[in-house]
Every structure is written in C-alpha cells, then in structure tokens.
C-alpha cells in the first residue's frame, strides 16, 4: 500500500524535527538519536504488512510525543549548579524530578 509510506515519512520527519529541538546544541545526543531513528526506519523499510506499519507509525508517534513532552535539557553552569532549559510544549508536570515522591491518590 502506498498510503502507509507518506505517513511513515511524516512520522520520520517529525521525529527528526523533535530530535533537533529536544537535543539542541548537544551534538552527542543529536548524533545518537539520529542514528537510532534512522536505524529503526531502515530496519523496517521493507515491511509490507499494513498492520505492522500501523503499529510502527503508532510507536513512532508515541516516541515523538514522549521526547517532546518529557526530555528536559539540563546544562552544567558551574561545578554543582544546573540550569534547566524547558522548551515550549514541555509538560512540566511530567517531569520526574520531584523533591519528594508524590503521594499516590
């Protein structure tokens, strides 16, 4: 089916856009993420089963969302001082760094 290809491509592009956004200025992370994304897509590029393609599109979208919403860049400013660099669209309530564990409601 040609239909899947367009969607796969747009997920691929979106993942790369998010990767560049999320790991801005972090060459090592950018390279590692690029390699991982390309690897996954290459590995599955001959997949023909519609069902599997759907699954992979879903997974790609999920990964993109997780990256966009939960990856937080932290910069070492001084020896023991960190600077958080939240981006627009970051859901801060998802950030796992809490001073105390949340009480389960």
Automatic annotation (TrEMBL):
Which keywords does this Swiss-Prot/TrEMBL entry list?
A: Chaperone, Mitochondrion
Cellular localization per UniProt? Mitochondrion matrix
Q: Name one GO biological process term.
A: mitochondrial respiratory chain complex III assembly
- InterPro entries named in the record: Complex1_LYR_dom (IPR008011), Complex1_LYR_LYRM7 (IPR045298), MZM1/LYRM7 (IPR050435)
Q: Provide the Gene Ontology terms for cellular component.
A: mitochondrial matrix
Major place of residence: mitochondrion
Q: Which GO terms describe its molecular function?
A: protein folding chaperone
> A Pfam family for this UniProt protein?
Complex1_LYR
Task: Say which domain of life the source belongs to.
Answer: Eukaryota
Record-annotated Complex 1 LYR protein domain positions: 8-61
Q: What does this protein do?
A: Assembly factor required for Rieske Fe-S protein UQCRFS1 incorporation into the cytochrome b-c1 (CIII) complex. Functions as a chaperone, binding to this subunit within the mitochondrial matrix and stabilizing it prior to its translocation and insertion into the late CIII dimeric intermediate within the mitochondrial inner membrane.
**How is this protein organized at the quaternary level?**
Interacts with UQCRFS1.
Q: Which family does it belong to?
A: Belongs to the complex I LYR family.
Q: What is this protein called?
A: Complex III assembly factor LYRM7
Which species is the source of this protein?
Answer: Cyprinodon variegatus
């Amino acid at each position: 089916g040609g239909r899947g290809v367009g969607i796969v491509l747009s997920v691929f592009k979106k993942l790369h856009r998010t990767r560049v956004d999320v790991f801005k200025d972090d060459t090592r992370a950018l390279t590692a993420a690029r390699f991982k994304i390309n690897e996954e897509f290459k590995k599955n590029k001959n997949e023909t089963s519609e069902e599997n393609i759907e699954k992979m599109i879903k997974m790609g979208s999920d990964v993109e969302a997780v990256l966009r919403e939960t990856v937080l860049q932290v910069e070492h400013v001084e020896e023991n001082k960190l600077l958080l660099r939240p981006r627009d669209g970051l859901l801060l309530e998802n950030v796992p760094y809490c001073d105390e564990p949340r009480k389960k409601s």
